[in-house]
Amino acid sequence: MNIRFILIGFMLFPLIHACSSGGSSTSTGSFLDSAVSGVTYSSYTHSGETDTNGKFYYKDGETITFKIGDIVIGSALVSSTMTPLSFVSESDSSREKHINILRLLQTLDSDGDSSNGININEGVGVGITNIDFDQSATDFSSDSAVTGFVATNANVSLVSANVAVSHFNSTLTGLDASTIMDFSGSTWIEEVRYKNTNTGCTSDWVTQATYSGFTSVGVTVATINESWNTSCVFNGDSTIVTSDYTYAGLGADSWAFCGTSCTYSNLNKTTYNSIDSDGRTVDTFTSYVPGSSKIITYKKIISSSNSSENGTIFESRIIKQ
Question: Which CATH number fits domain 188-320: 2.40.128, 1.20.1280, 2.40.160, 3.40.50?
């Protein structure tokens, strides 16, 4: 037996194994409300616990899951910045899931001061599997599983939705302002679904717009074709079917207003009981995972001078062509 060849074989095995494991190189990301430490994460290639900077390890293209003990916060396509908005899905029954996650994270912060980072103490959430984030913020506040868990594991009462969202937005605003999306030269299709919680009217994906011609202040051309469900009425209109027309410009609160230099906070944002450009009280969010080809938006009209609008919900999915 040739000992030298055996030794060389053992020396080469780690190199061969490393090559055969394939895939992209390992990257580091951050899980943020502010930086969240003490939550666990797992993907196909990596698992561990976030540190004081919210740091985790991943490979591109993987799905990653975050937990507080045994409480699943959410799973999503991984990117270098992960937040509760990353877990928004078209299949959610409530569009306030991410707000409830923000509230619980801030409530469980060990020193009660989310501005200096959020730390989840060891052992919190272990054995707990009955926390449901996918419900309205109001229902989450009165959920006995939530109130009981908070009473046992936190030094404060459940943080309000307004406070949680305000803190989250300040975190996103403070992120590196580098561009994560340049819409120039691309075309996106937006499909809109409409429903009214007061009338029970629900439409399918009924309005389609093709956006192109992006500039530094938004989009210059949108070809729109509307076809509303005949049972749905909005602003006195029903059975609207129009020919294609062009739409010049988008409002400052639009998903595409950032145009050619969109930052993370431009495309990932949320409001709760805020005032929109038409003076209505609304809840909204925009969610985009960097590197993906879909943007999800949501707007619910809470209160309007036109009372027929109250309770109206608009949901959009915008897909890159």
Answer: 2.40.128
